[in-house]
Design brief:
alpha/beta, 4-stranded mixed β-sheet, 3 domains, single chain
């Protein structure tokens, strides 16, 4: 029995709101639907949603009346009331689930509201993704009908006063439709396990009993799981135990640094499908093997706006100004970095999620994630993005024939000037000095600002090579082991101090 018939008739495609031709019209239709649903909430009354709905220029009126928000602002003004059990604050009804999200830099958890409407929209988007798999000729139809290993957070959620909180993956698995249950691995019992190491042990124990067709999760943790299975059963590759494994749905971080090491675990090539599923909603996915990036979901449950990520709209610490320049989807340009504002079916309104993206195909609404508003280095004007860093690591790894699955960078004082200290995970033999020279050369080639500053205030680039276990152990110490957690690409402030103290203790896992 197949998970879904991917040759669906047009009537079903229409019911699922599959993409039409005008992203602008689709987005305005989504905005109108959101405003109608939330017009009687406290937020909707405060910002005159009824008035916005009567306007001939819906999008512009919305931008004129409703201010932009970051997490602290919307939490302090509205979301804290939902945690106290109050209904109809930013979205109709009472919020019963919250995704705990600390990003990769902050210590305190953020409580992101999750509603049935949001989960329904995420599910519809997942179905669209599955339908799009017909565009991948190398993915056999039978693989889509096999079980999928979804490696996420625990479904044993934290119990609050009238609500539950946990990873979005755990909430999604807990509220999974009954018809999907037979295809879901590791199954509800193992998914409930809170201890990450015990969960992995139970997955390894059950692995021979499953016929896995695809994998879903953050690359680092999926790779660790596969390595443990191969080691336990003395396999050459994971295909010895899961011969039908054909594709990997990945997201959260760039897959390129992991690809070389990951493919050593395979008996044959598989397809990689990138997804953009944040705690705030399912934003985009790669809809074909030839796609330059991921296609934004413009017709479902999220209205998107775009703020140019530049010195005009953001300060030196990555904080957005109070009244930034904001564009709708038809106003953006290819090749320019933007921060995203989301308005969703869970009561996020003009909400800055912190990711930066770039349009690589405007006509098809295809984007790539370039980093985070606060995860970049610009000590002296070098404007180094996570995308730049990832490219440098990828090229260096290929040139030196080594695998670098994790890395992070810190900007530090160097006398009266500055330096970049790189920490890379590599279990292969690697010369730190040669690696530093390679990384530096690539960055000079792809980033003119960086090349200029290397001639002046940015005096040194250093590399410290560490075992991959050091990164994993640090994440475990921080309580961010497994699930959706990923290592920050840039370390600053308190997190940098903790990392330096951790390394000084000689802890490498």
């Amino acid at each position: 029995m197949a998970l879904i018939d991917i040759s669906l008739p047009k009537s079903v495609s229409k019911a699922l709101n599959l993409p039409r031709k005008s992203p602008r019209r689709e987005q305005l239709r989504v905005l109108k639907k959101l405003l109608k649903k939330a017009r009687f909430t406290e937020f909707g009354q405060q910002y005159r949603f009824d008035e916005i709905l009567l306007s001939r220029h819906l999008g512009k009126k919305f931008q004129e009346i409703v201010p932009t928000y970051n997490y602290n602002k919307i939490y302090n003004e509205y979301w804290h009331k939902t945690l106290e059990g109050k209904s109809d604050i930013c979205w109709p009804g009472k919020i019963k689930y919250y995704a705990l999200s600390s990003g990769t830099s902050e210590a305190a958890s953020k409580y992101i509201p999750i509603t049935p409407d949001l989960l329904r929209g995420n599910l519809n988007t997942m179905i669209k993704l599955v339908i799009s798999l017909r565009n991948y000729e190398e993915i056999p139809v039978k693989a889509i009908g096999k079980a999928g290993l979804l490696l996420g957070g625990t479904t044993d959620l934290q119990k609050g006063t009238g609500y539950f909180a946990g990873d979005l993956s755990g909430i999604t698995a807990k509220r999974m439709p009954f018809w999907f249950t037979p295809f879901y691995k590791p199954g509800k019992k193992i998914a409930k396990q809170k201890d990450w190491n015990k969960k992995l042990e139970e997955i390894v124990e059950q692995a021979p009993n499953w016929d896995i067709g695809y994998l879903t999760g953050v690359p680092a943790w999926i790779q660790m799981c596969i390595e443990k299975i191969i080691e336990r059963y003395q396999l050459k590759t994971i295909h010895d135990i899961w011969p039908n494994l054909s594709f990997f749905l990945h997201g959260g971080v760039s897959f390129e640094p992991y690809k070389k090491g990951f493919e050593k675990l395979l008996g044959r090539p598989i397809s990689y499908v990138e997804t953009y599923l944040a705690s705030e909603g399912f934003i985009a996915y790669q809809d074909g093997p030839g796609a330059k990036g991921m296609k934004l979901v413009t017709n479902e449950h999220i209205f998107m706006e775009f703020v140019p990520f530049d010195d005009v709209n953001f300060d030196g610490e990555g904080n957005m100004i109070e009244k930034p320049e904001v564009m709708m989807i038809h106003e953006v340009e290819e090749g320019r970095d933007y921060a995203i504002l989301l308005s969703t079916s869970a009561g996020a309104w003009r909400y800055l999620i912190g990711d930066t993206i770039r349009f690589v195909n405007k006509a098809n609404c295809e984007i790539v994630i370039t980093g985070r508003t606060k995860h970049f280095l610009s000590l002296v004007g070098e404007h180094l993005s996570v995308e730049n860093m990832t490219k440098a690591i990828q090229v260096a790894g290929e040139d030196l024939n080594i695998c670098i699955p994790e890395f992070t960078v810190a900007g530090v004082p160097h006398g009266n000037m500055f330096a970049h200290n790189w920490y890379v995970a590599c279990n292969d033999k690697a010369d730190p000095q040669v690696l530093a020279e390679k990384i530096d050369a690539v960055l000079k080639d792809i980033n003119d600002d960086y090349a200029t500053e290397r001639l002046s205030a940015l005096k040194e680039v250093t590399v410290k090579v560490l075992p991959e276990s050091a990164f994993m152990s640090f994440m475990k110490m921080k309580g961010k082991e497994g699930g959706q957690h990923k290592f920050p690409r840039v370390l600053k402030g308190k997190m940098l101090k903790e990392w330096e103290d951790f390394l000084a203790q000689g802890t490498d896992g």
